[in-house]
Every structure is written in structure tokens, then in C-alpha cells.
Design brief:
single chain; ten-stranded antiparallel beta sheet; 1 helix; globular; disordered N terminus
Amino acid sequence: MAARNLLSLILLAIPLPAQSPAQSLDPPALPAAASAIRVEPSAQLKYHFLAAGKQIYKCENGAWAKASTPDAALFDKNANLQVHHSAGPSWTTLDHKSAVKAIGATAIHFAAPDGVSIDWLKLEVDKASRTGDFRDVAIIQRLYTGAGQAPTAACTTNQVYESPYTAHYYFWSLP
């Protein structure tokens, strides 16, 4: 319950646009240096979610792996849990009627401007994975990240670290 209250406070401070595709959603503002993670001008913003979760890192040969596994809850503008984000990376609605998976190998990274949070990303979607309301999602952006990086200290093999993070996720379709 405390996590939901905290998220509600965050959502009050960061207004999110309506989720109805029929309504106009404002695209995210990006720094000029982030041109590589911009979407094409013809892309249509379908959904905007706020995520709270963790990035899970594993220790390999005394160092934290560069790649992480997400485990996050995505909320709409009214702080209602809508989507679960997990390994793949993948996103699935709570009712399991809509899902989408990104092609992680094609991810375009942009270092978070705060210098301490996980990268901002532009991800291409695996078209064969799209179902339900996500059937036309082509691009997913992870922006405005907070925390989520692996520790810098050494680790022992098979050690796991769960790094809390927040982010905004933008789901786009293409004509």
C-alpha cells in the first residue's frame, strides 16, 4: 500500500496524458543530443505509462553484468496498474489480452542526462509478438529514468542485485 501511495504522489507531480488513442497525446520532450532515440515524425503515440520496479543484475566473474532483467509495474495517469514489464523485454496487460515484446539486440541507448540512472532506450518491437491492444505498437521508448543501475562495487559469482527504478514508457505505432 505504501508503494501505491508513493506512486500516487509521483503521478501528482508528473501529469500523464489520457490513455485513449482517440485523444491527442503529447510526445515526450527530448534533449537535442538524444536524436538517435527520437521516433519518426509519422509515428503516433498510443500509450504513455509510468513504471516503478527493479532492474535485476547478476554477477558474472566478479563483475556485474551490463544487461539486466526488468520487473516493473506500469501505471496509467490515474495510478491504476495496467501492464507488467518483464524479461524479453516484454510487456503484458494484467488481463493477459495484450502483449508485446521488443527486440533487445536492436535497442538504441542514450545515457540518462542525470548521469546516475539507467539509459534511455528506443526499442523496436517484434511484430509477431504483438497481441490485443498492442497489435499495432512498433516502437517503445523508455525515458526519464530514475536510478536502476548496477552497483559499482565488486561482486561474487551468482550474486543478484535488485536495483529500484522508475521510468516513463511510450508506446508508438507507425503508419
